[in-house]
Amino acid sequence: MKAKAAGVTYLDPPLSERVAWLRSEYNFYERDKALLCARLEKLRPLVGSAVLGRWVASITLERWNEFVEDILETHYDAAYARSRKRVCSEVGTSVYTVQPESISEGEYSRMAATILQQLK
């Protein structure tokens, strides 16, 4: 018996907010560029040498915002978009996109209330 599919809610905050949050949560990488580059090397088969080279150059030059924006847009966002599309088509559900103004607890609480209200 197949379970009934529920809709998917996708939170899409501003890129600048995501970059700032990721930099604050993973700031240890900014102090250990060699570790970061070693971890990124594992993505070479997925993203190719040119993209990896661009990331390493940004890291080497300490262009942190540029690097984080690039890895989000080039790798993570693309991977999650493919996954969302695949899962939604497999279970026959739709995606509801919510665009919070910031990544703050207050904004997320406000968005949750809005989503719950729309589900009633």
Structure commentary:
This protein is mainly α and 120 residues long. The protein has one domain. It is 69% helix and 7% strand. It has helices at residues 15-25, 28-31, 33-41, 44-47, 49-60, 64-91, 105-119, and strands at residues 8-11, 95-98. It has a two-stranded parallel ribbon. α5 (49-60) packs antiparallel against α6 (64-91). The protein is flat and about 50 Å long. The two termini are 27 Å apart. The model has no long low-confidence stretch (mean pLDDT 89).
Number of helices: 7
Average pLDDT taken over every residue: 89
Give the helices and strands as they follow along the chain: EHHHHHHEH
CA-based shape: flat
List the keywords.
7% strand, 120 residues, 69% helix, flat, two-stranded parallel sheet, mainly alpha
Per-chain topology:
Layout: E1 8-11, H1 15-25, H2 28-31, H3 33-41, H4 44-47, H5 49-60, H6 64-91, E2 95-98, H7 105-119
Parallel strand pairs: 1-2
Helix pairs in contact: 1-6, 3-5, 5-6
Concise synopsis of the structure shown:
By secondary structure, this protein is mainly α. Helix content is 69%, strand content 7%.
